[in-house]
TrEMBL record:
Alphabetized UniProt keyword annotations: Coiled coil, Metal-binding, Zinc, Zinc-finger
Keyword Metal-binding: yes
Protein name: Ring finger membrane
Species of origin: Micractinium conductrix
Coiled coil regions, renumbered to chain: 110-140
InterPro entries: Znf_RING-CH (IPR011016), Znf_RING/FYVE/PHD (IPR013083)
Superkingdom, natural source: Eukaryota
Residue stretches making up the RING-CH-type domain: 19-81
Region (Disordered): 1-23
GO MF term list: zinc ion binding
Pfam families referenced in this protein's UniProt entry, alphabetically: RINGv
Signal peptide positions (record): none
Amino acid sequence: MGEPSFSLPPSLAGSRVPSESGEAPTCRICWNQEDSQPGGRIHCPCCCTTGVHDRCLLQWLLSGRENQESCELCTAVWEGDLTVAIRDLLAAAAALKSAQPDTAELVAAVAALQQREASLQRLLQEAEEAEAARQRDFERMRRVAAADREVMLGQLEQAKQWRRSNLRWLPPVAIAVAGAFLAGLSLGEQRVATHARPPSPQ
């Protein structure tokens, strides 16, 4: 007794896919070439110009499609026969699953990526906060420097005004002091001359 197989009415094994470039045809579902694995034949069961593996078409139809009588792309009714051994199909699926990371590894990888993304986001936020703080410090220092400059300019202006005021009164004061000094000197000379003169005869 042969292995159990799956057949779809009204049959699904159309013509082999022609190769215009001479290269091996590829499956439009998995994008792999025809192989010797169970259900590895590529053919056109509809009016589409691209072929499909027997196993890929079977898995696609068994994935819960409501319309199993015609192609969803070209809407043509399936043609030909499609027979795939269920046991071989399950064995191929098991081999494919064993070659891929399991769910736990995928979850761990996703969690690691999420953690890395969170760390990068945190570093980015810290960098933005540091840049904002640096900008605030720069603005504060600029305001302080501007205020100090205004104070210094004000002090210089006051010093200039004080100097101008003193220089304006300096000539009259100097003249008055010199005049007083000369007057005092002349009076002193007169007194000396008076005391040095001999007394007149009586």
